[in-house]
Amino acid sequence: MLESGEEAVLGVARRSVARLVLLVALLSAIVATVASPVAALPARGRPPRVEVPEPTGSSAVGTKSLWLVDRSRSDPWNPAVSARELMVSVWYPTAGASRARAPYMSAALSRVVFGSDALAGVRTRAFLDAPPRRRSAPLVVVSPGFGGSRTSLTASAEELASHGYVVAVVDHTYEAPVEFPDGRLEPCRICVGIPDDARVVRTRAADIGFVIDRLTAPDAGLSVDARRIGVFGHSMGGAAAVEALRTDRRIDAAVDLDGNFWTEPPAAGIDRPVLLLGAQRVRTGTPDANWQGMWDRLTGPRRWLDVPAGGHYTFCDMPWIVDRFGIRDGVPPDEAAWQYGTLGGDRATAITRAYVRAFLDRHLRGRPGNLLDRPSRAYPEIRFVG
C-alpha cells in the first residue's frame, strides 16, 4: 500500500535531519577516539596523502572562492545582518594550471565540522586560482545538504569541470558552518530545530538565483553561457534545486539527489527536465510518497532512478571520506545502512558522477547518450523507477 499522509512524510524528513546531526556527532567522536588514519594524523608535519577521487574528463580544473553579498535582501536567519552574504566555490576548465592544488577545506573549518583538522590535509584535483579557459561553458549551480559545507560536493563539481562545465557550489550561510575571508567562521544557527523547512528551500532557491545573477554578469570573469544553466543539489539542496527550476526561467534542468520535498508540488507542474536520483526510495515495490507527489507534477522530461544498495550520503563526498579515513566501521550498523548502504565510496562517486553528467549533457548540451534510457551493464546498481 502506498505510504501517504503529511505525518508520514514529516516523520521521514525529521529522521533525516536527526540522523545528520547524529552523523556529525559520531564522526567527531570517532575522529577523537578511534585508532584510524584520522586519529593518527600528526598535529604538525606532513599528513597522509588523501585526495579527492580523480575526475574522468580531459580538462585541467581550476577553482576559486567568491564572497558574494546580496544587498537586496536581509539575512533570513540573522536579523542583525542587513544583507545576505554567501561563500561560493567555483570550479572550471583551465588552460593554465598553477602549481598549488586547492585544499579540501581549512583546518579551522575541518575542526568545526569534524572535530579534527584531518580534512585540511586532503587535496583536491583543482588548481587554486588558475585562469579560466576562455571557451564559453554551461553553468551549473549546486546546493549541498542541510548542515553540509559547500566542500561536500567537490568530487561531482570537479568531474563536471573536467568535462567543460563551470560549476558553482553555494554555502548557504547559517545553514552550515561557513568560513569567510575576513576570518569569521559563522556557525549553523538553525541546524537544531529548523524553523521552517519550506522557508529553507525558498531561501536556497533565492540564493541560487542570486549566484546566477553574479556569475552571468559581464564582469564575472568566467566564460559562462547564460543560455545553458543547470542546477543540482543533495538532500535539502536537491529540493532547493527543483524549487529554483520552478521559480527561475533561466534554469534549464535540475537534479535532486535524495532530497525530500518541502514546498507544495506546483499546481501548474514543472515543464523542464528533472532527474530524481535517490537511495532506497522504493520499498517492497512501493515508491516513496514524498517523491511521488512531486513526480506527478513533473510535466517535462523526467527520470526517477533509485540505488537500492545506496544510502542518503551516497551522492556526496561522505562515502569516500569515511573509506579513506577508516570511519565506516565505527558507525553503528543500522545507521551505516541508512547513511551509506553497502556501496563503497569510490563506486558511489562513480555512479553519482555518471548519471548527473549524463543528465546535464543531454539537457544543456544536446548530447543524448543512452545511459538515461535503459538499465546499464556498467551500472547494475541503478534501478529505473520512472
From TrEMBL:
All copies of domain PET hydrolase/cutinase-like, residue ranges: 139-316
Q: Which organism is it from?
A: Embleya scabrispora
Q: What is this protein called?
A: PET hydrolase/cutinase-like domain-containing protein
Q: Provide this UniProt record's keywords sorted from A to Z.
A: Hydrolase, Lipid degradation, Lipid metabolism, Membrane, Transmembrane, Transmembrane helix
> Does the record's keyword annotation contain Transmembrane?
yes
Supply one GO molecular-function term. 1-alkyl-2-acetylglycerophosphocholine esterase activity
Q: Does the keyword Transmembrane helix apply?
A: yes
TM spans, by residue?
20-41
For the biological process aspect of GO, one term held by this record is: lipid catabolic process
Q: Please, which domain of life does this record's source organism belong to? A: Bacteria
